[in-house]
């Protein structure tokens, strides 16, 4: 049970970090794409 909780504490922040990185890179991509469209 303790091992499961420990794995959860590691995997959850890791998933959050990955999600944030994907969101930021996607947002960056959309910003660059809109700049290209304006030009």
Summarize the structure in short.
The protein contains 1 helix and no strands. The chain is mainly α.
What does this structure look like?
- By secondary structure, this protein is mainly alpha-helical.
- The chain contains one helix and no strands.
- Helices cover 95% and strands 0% of the residues.
- The protein starts with a helix and ends with a helix.
- The chain crosses the membrane at residues 6-24.
- Keywords: Membrane, Transmembrane, Transmembrane helix.
DSSP E strands, number: 0
Query: How widely separated are the two ends?
Result: 57 Å
Question: Which ranges are low-confidence, i.e. pLDDT below 50, for 5 or more consecutive residues?
Answer: none
What is the ordering of alpha helices and beta strands?
A: H
Strand content: under 5%
* Percent helix range: over 70%
Radius of gyration: 17 Å
Round the mean pLDDT to the nearest integer and report it. Answer: 85
Number of helices: 1
Which structural category do the helix and sheet elements fall into? mainly alpha
Overall shape: it is rod-shaped
Largest sheet: none
Keywords: Membrane, Transmembrane, Transmembrane helix
Transmembrane segments: 6-24
Write the layout of secondary structure elements.
Elements: H1 2-38
Q: Which characteristics define this entry?
A:
transmembrane helix, about 40 residues, membrane, mainly alpha, transmembrane, rod-shaped
């Amino acid at each position: 049970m303790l091992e499961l909780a420990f794995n959860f504490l590691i995997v959850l922040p890791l998933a959050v970090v990955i999600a944030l990185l994907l969101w930021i890179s996607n947002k960056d991509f959309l910003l660059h794409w809109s700049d290209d469209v304006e030009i």
